[in-house]
Amino acid sequence: MSYSDSTKKLVLITGAANGIGLATARKLASSGHDLFILDKDEAPLEAAVAELSALGAKTKSLVLDLSKSDQIIPALDAALAGAVVDQLINNAGVGFARNVESTSFDEWDLTIDINLKAVFVMCKYFVPKMVAAGGGEIVNVASAASIIGLKNRVAYCASKAGVAGLTRAI
Fold this sequence. Notes:
Elements: E1 10-14, H1 19-30, E2 34-39, H2 42-54, E3 59-63, H3 69-80, E4 87-90, H4 105-132, E5 137-140, H5 145-148, H6 154-169
Parallel strand pairs: 1-2, 1-4, 2-3, 4-5
């Protein structure tokens, strides 16, 4: 897919097959943006592409598991093929209803990998590209849980507090 119309902004959204990511993509599609959407679940992602395309958005997708941080940059390099991303929305997230005692190390690692580390990797990848292109916009989706905390959401709260801190630092 070519993104040669320089009057349109290309927006990349992670976690865009459902929920907040898909709602955001719908709004942007109806506003005339071209979209590059990522999710780990292929079938819902394909359905999202069909829906967004029907709204008139040029939409490309990539099935990508953001918990595999070493695969993010090579996958983006191959999939974007020189396209300029004007806006990045780091939306993908996961959470488990667990307190500190019941959170397993695997659940902790998965939550931190998707909710925080992937945001870092995406920003590390796109910030220099956006600076070189003369600008861009990044939205990192955190949560009120990053400030107030939520009962039985220990890993989620920690990861979203990390996203808020990372965003302020960037």
